[in-house]
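Z., the sequence and structure:
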Amino acid sequence: METPVDRVPLAERIEQLLSVQGPLSIVAAGDPVLRAGTEPYDGQLGPALLARFVDALRITMRAAPGVGLAAPQVGVGLRIAVIEDPAPVPEEVRLARGRVPQPFRVLVNPVYEPVGTGRAAFFEGCLSVPGYQAVVARAAEVRLTGQDEHGRALDEVFTGWPARIVQHETDHLDGTLYLDRAEPRSLSSHRAALEHWSQPTPERAARALGFDLP
């Protein structure tokens, strides 16, 4: 059903969104915008407004804090996401998860495809599903194509934790939440995950909670 907000031109809606200083509000699971999919970006905002919107996404992601944020998570159905990961983790976690620092970057119209058949499963969370984590098996290596905020082509292979981040954020643009791909029996509150499943890998959780790993 179309709402009055839907009838407001996109650029005008984003101007309204950006009129408030500071981080944007993050949409929580259950809001239809997270399930509707997104419209490819094709200059709808113009360079100046796009730059302001990207800056707002960056501010919001960092304030949350998170390692990625997709436009639908702030209520905007455009195929745009941002990622950044300083990866402040212990060495054993870095080695087990392949988590290495990622600079801030903008993904415009991203699409990913698996490279090879390898899969990796780890606990994952989402800013739009606050308070919970679950184990998700994802492709261990992906090829990401699309553009950056300046229209320059992106064609890059990601492995380890960066591959997980780009899959998670690109899924948001297709109306998919990480819970759709998660092992249901692994679902844990942040507190339970911290108390019981803080190990670098989820093998112990799989045995105790009764789910399979790839």
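The first strand starts at residue 68 and ends at 70. The two ends are 40 Å apart (CA to CA).

Let me know what you think.
H.
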